[in-house]
Write a structure and sequence with these properties.
The structure is a single chain. 61% of the residues lie in helices and 0% in strands. The protein is an all-alpha fold. α1 (29-40) packs parallel to α4 (69-102), α3 (52-64) runs antiparallel to α4 and α4 (69-102) runs antiparallel to α5 (108-138). The longest helix is centred in the middle third of the chain and has 34 residues, at 69-102.
Length: 157
């Protein structure tokens, strides 16, 4: 049984046009807490810009993925987000590096500020996304990160 089978919308007071977040009424307190930390472990990459956040997220997801659809969904989403940020970072570095080389380093006038802005963007996206994912998990709600490539698809039943 996947997460979609447990979705419900018990969030009164919100306009239906705003699509309130799906809630899993079966998510236990310990599952919500574990899902919360699955999102927060991605913030480890903020400390030293390594793969620690991605590795920690993958480990946490795989340990509990089969325990519940809620944990599987949150773990998969957190891993997809961390992978997306890694791809954006590497892709941006390649594009900016190629531009710098093609312009015989004259382009560094553009690429250095662009790299700084890109790094700030990724840091803010990681921070805001990780915290929002954790908040939704703590509430027993499902969450979809913005600007995320769905590289690891949901299982087909």
């Amino acid at each position: 049984m996947h997460a979609a089978a447990t979705y419900s919308r018990p969030m009164p007071g919100r306009d239906a046009d705003h699509h309130p977040p799906y809630v899993d009424p079966h998510a236990k307190e310990d599952e919500r807490t574990y899902a919360l930390f699955t999102h927060l472990v991605g913030l480890l990459s903020l400390a030293d810009m390594t793969l620690l956040g991605l590795i920690g997220t993958i480990i946490m997801w795989r340990i509990k993925a089969k325990q519940s659809p809620f944990l599987d969904d949150h773990g998969r989403e957190a891993v997809n987000f961390q992978l997306s940020l890694l791809i954006y970072t590497i892709g941006g570095a390649i594009v900016l590096g190629a531009f710098t080389l093609l312009t015989f380093f004259v382009g560094s006038i553009i690429t250095i500020p662009a790299a700084v802005i890109g790094a700030i963007f990724v840091v803010v996206l990681r921070l805001v996304g990780g915290i929002r994912g954790a908040i939704f998990a703590a509430r027993g709600q499902y969450y979809r990160y913005p600007m995320t490539l769905r590289l690891i698809p949901e299982p087909v039943e």
